[in-house]
Design goal:
Pfam families: DUF1059. InterPro entries: DUF1059. This is Small metal-binding protein. The chain is α+β, with helices and mostly antiparallel strands and 56 residues long. The chain is built from 3 helices and 3 strands, in the order βαβααβ.
Length: 56
């Protein structure tokens, strides 16, 4: 299981995204960013987020 904490990306947000693999986490994170923060995740942003995804 992979996990990403929204707070580690730089938002003041308690959101935690969990998925089976890194790609799923990135997809869910992009949806969360759009819905909760009105931010469109670009490929460059995804590259910066990828190292923040950890094994749970």
């Amino acid at each position: 299981m992979k996990v990403l904490h929204c707070r580690e990306v730089g938002f003041d947000c308690p959101g935690v995204i969990k998925a089976e693999n890194e790609q799923e986490v990135l997809q869910l994170a992009a949806q969360h960013a759009q819905d909760a923060h009105q931010v469109q995740v670009t490929p460059e942003m995804a590259d910066q987020i990828r190292p923040l995804i950890k094994d749970e």
